[in-house]
Design brief:
This protein is α/β, with parallel strands linked by helices. It has helices spanning 27-40, 54-64, 85-96, 116-128, 142-152, 170-179, 198-207, 211-221, 233-240, 249-256, and strands spanning 6-8, 14-16, 20-21, 44-46, 72-77, 101-106, 132-138, 158-162, 182-186, 225-226. It is built from 10 helices and 10 strands. Helix 3 (85-96) links the parallel strand 5 and strand 6 (101-106). The mean pLDDT is 98. The chain binds nicotinamide-adenine-dinucleotide.
Length: 273
């Protein structure tokens, strides 16, 4: 299998382009899923305080026995702790059993409560103290990004946003590229729904791969970071096979056409929280 490539973040650190998302995996199942994924070659795990499985992630990492510096662990700050980010991060670290995370994200801007700039200042302090190696945000729109950058001068390393062939976020991706922010795709498989799209099925057949591998290969070809989720060992392994799928310009053009104005599956960042 091909090694997982890295992207370079604006703070100089490297981040694996393909990782495992663990949303909706029960804590008591998480250790086994994470351990198997690391044994298969995954190096990056995406969790959050909200997922209530950070302890399982930490246990899986210990069971795998891989060197800490070979792994990339992301967790996230929930909006009830925007004004208390440092303590919230320390609590996540205690559950993970780690001294630091590789990436700490503000999970949602929650603009109505309007504390995300305070949260960002907390993340900057966490980075300066070495408890979060890199810091970023999730579900931020352009205006939220501009506000934290203007307030602190610190550009988030990553914005993790809903992104899949039915919801391609072209405008926000262009803004990220202009500001040196890496785009990370959540629900990269459209929560499984995109895998039944007839164009995806047809192109996968033509390339001799599975629909999930084709869609992950699309994210990788666009330079995005993708964190597909599965709790099934065979699918977790299958998704790594995307690294060996090469898409032609014509495939990319056909997938570009799947973008839909109403393709969003998750909450709207403007109203969430
Ligand atoms: P996803 O797009 O990764 O789809 C997951 C679903 O796809 C699985 O439940 C499974 O049914 C199916 N699937 C996975 N691999 C498959 C395969 N090889 N063949 C067939 N079906 C397959 O959706 P997701 O879980 O919503 O997103 C992935 C990760 O993104 C999450 O686990 C989480 O880490 C992250 N996330 C972050 C946010 C955020 O607000 N920051 C929100 C949602 C998800």
């Amino acid at each position: 299998m091909t090694d997982i490539p890295n992207v370079r973040l604006n703070d100089g650190h490297a981040m694996p382009q393909l990782g495992l998302g663990v949303w909706q995996i029960e804590n008591d199942q998480t250790a086994a899923v994470v351990r198997a994924a690391i044994d298969d070659g995954y190096r990056s795990i995406d969790t959050a305080a909200l997922y209530h499985n950070e302890a399982g992630v930490g246990e899986g990492i210990r069971r795998a026995g891989a060197p800490r510096d070979a792994l990339f662990v992301t967790t996230k700050l929930w909006h009830d702790r925007h004004r208390d980010a440092e303590r919230a991060c320390d609590e996540s670290l205690a559950r993970l059993g780690l001294d630091s995370v590789d990436l700490y994200l503000i999970h949602w801007p929650a603009p109505r409560q309007n504390h995300y700039v305070d949260a960002w200042r907390g993340l900057v302090r966490l980075r300066d103290a070495g408890r979060a190696r890199s810091i970023g945000v999730s579900n931020f729109e352009r205006a939220h990004l501009e506000r934290v950058i203007d307030a602190t001068g610190v550009v988030p390393a990553v914005n993790q946003i809903e992104l899949h062939p039915r919801f391609q976020q072209t405008a926000l991706r262009a803004f990220h590229a202009a500001r040196g922010i890496v785009t990370e795709s959540w629900s990269p498989l459209g929560q499984g729904q995109v895998l039944r799209d007839p164009v995806v099925v047809e192109l996968a057949r033509a390339r001799g791969c599975t629909p999930a591998q084709l869609v992950i290969a699309w994210h990788l070809a666009l330079g995005l970071v993708a964190i597909p989720k599965s709790s099934h060992a065979a699918r977790v392994r299958e998704n790594l096979g995307a690294l060996d799928v090469r898409l032609e310009p014509d495939d990319m053009a056909r997938l570009a056409h799947l973008d839909r104005r109403d393709g969003r599956l998750g909450p709207n960042p403007a109203t969430m929280g």
